[in-house]
Known about the structure:
Number of strands: 0
Order of helices and strands: HHHHH
Number of helices: 5
Distance between the termini: 26 Å
Structural class: mainly alpha
Strand content: under 5%
Amino acid sequence: MVSNMENKTVSEVQEMLDQVGDSRxxxxxxxxxxxxxxxxxxxxxxxxxxxxxxxKSTVVSIAAILLYCVGIGGVVGYxxxxxxxxxxxxxxxxxxxxxxxxxxIGAFVVAGSVVGLGFATNFYIAAVVAFFGVSIGGIWYHxxxxxxxxxIVAA
Length: 155
């Protein structure tokens, strides 16, 4: 294809370059289209895991760990099958990386708050806070991700 470039018009070459750009952004666009209901599902998995610390039972702890792993695995598997193409870290723009850093900071704040609340009061209350923190924080992050991806695609 490169050896044949001299026979292409400027508009044909620009169209080819646009297609390359579209394929580079395909994973970002696919991830931005993930449904928002995935975040409350993750929140339920996290909340069940956190609540299991209040129950002094090995069986309940094992069940909670299994629920968490199967739930998170199911969400990731669903997203991967739905997308067909995954975003690569190398395709992230500085704006996407910045949003991810904000997400990580929020996740650390929520995790620290949940653990502190669990030890200070009980882990049932911490589980409720975890559910809302993961659900609301994840949806907030996902909407910001969508906005940045829309700007990238529009440019």
